[in-house]
Write a structure and sequence with these properties.
Elements (H helix, E strand, L loop, with lengths): L1 H7 L7 E5 L7 H12 L6 E5 L1 H10 L5 H9 L8 H5 L7 H12 L4 H6 L3 E8 L5 E5 H4 L3 H8 L9 E3 L2 E5 L8 H6 L4 E5 L15 H4 L6 H26 L4 E3 L14 H26 L2
Parallel strand pairs: 1-2, 1-7, 2-3, 7-8
Antiparallel strand pairs: 3-4, 3-6, 5-6
Length: 295
């Protein structure tokens, strides 16, 4: 199996990292981009994913680029997948066990063997609820625990519960490091490609969540701090990305305008349009992307 995967990869990209932002169902844009990459057999030596970006990373490295689109369009109106009633009665908005157990194990099987045999590094970004720090779990160290950490990376406050893993309480990686470009720089990757799910110029506004909702996280001081300051850190990261982009030090693929699908989306037509816009964006940028990667 490992030899078969090795023969698939273009190791001219052995010094390149791919960084995938989250964004809930907006992440279907990234799924479309990755479909275009797979069509061209374009692979990276390292993929760093956050939340839905981490889910996209998993399907990309298991060589199942259509899987994320299939899951989101086939099951988004299924109450096991998404239910406001479940949320209002004390459960999760998204059926996290359904998404990270039933779907990958039975309904839309995830090719774990291919994923683990893939020689590329894969980092899944999560947030430690107590410290508020970002943690980056390597697939090579997780093995059979991978889906548990992937679930944690996708668990947003107020609509999901923290995931306990090896003595830590973990939640969505976007709370501490929405776009891990600095991690890619620290790790020494000479080429960095980022896929964002917001158009150029977007900046996050301060949260208007009432204080009463925050009381449920009083035992997690780091998480509380992140929730209050997330817009500041996210916007500073976008400023930094634009600075690097202007100097030609990174390559960014992003939507040209606001995507049809929102973070929580039940309209399958909008999800398809978002996927198609990702594919089209990758297609339009492809020649420039190759020039950047092989310069």
């Amino acid at each position: 199996m490992a030899k078969d995967i090795l023969s698939t990869f273009d190791f001219r990209l052995e010094e390149a990292a791919l960084i995938l932002e989250g964004g809930g169902l907006r992440g279907t844009f990234t799924s479309g981009v990755l479909r275009r990459f797979v069509d061209e057999k374009l692979y990276f030596a390292c993929v760093i994913g956050v939340s839905m970006g981490a889910c996209n990373a998993a399907n990309y490295l298991s060589l199942q680029p259509e899987r994320n689109r299939i899951v989101n369009t086939r099951y988004v109106r299924d109450r096991r997948y998404l239910s406001y009633l479940r949320l209002f009665t004390g459960g999760d908005l998204f059926g996290m066990n359904f998404i990270f157990r039933d779907l990958p194990e039975k309904l839309v099987p995830f090719d774990t063997k291919t994923f683990l045999a893939n020689p590329a590094r894969c980092l899944t970004t999560v947030t430690d609820c107590v410290t508020g720090k970002a943690l980056y779990y390597e697939k090579s160290e997780l093995g059979g625990d991978y889906l548990t950490v992937l679930k944690a990376s996708s668990s947003l406050p107020f609509i999901a519960k923290p995931v306990e893993y090896k003595g830590r309480y973990l939640m969505d990686g976007g709370l501490s490091d929405s776009v891990p470009v600095r991690r890619a720089l620290e790790d020494g990757w000479k080429k960095r490609v980022i896929i964002l799910t917001r158009p150029a110029g977007y900046r996050k506004k301060p949260s208007k969540l009432p204080g009463i909702l925050l009381r449920g996280y009083r035992g997690f001081p780091g998480l509380l701090k992140n929730l209050k300051e997330r817009h500041l850190h996210y916007n500073e990261t976008l400023d930094y990305i634009e600075e690097l982009e202007s100097r030609g030090e990174i390559f960014v693929i992003r939507p040209a305008e606001d995507l049809p699908a929102g973070r929580v989306e039940r309209d399958t037509a909008k999800i398809y349009l978002t996927y198609d816009s990702g594919y089209a964006a990758a297609d339009a940028a492809f020649e420039k992307l190759l020039a950047y990667l092989h310069a």
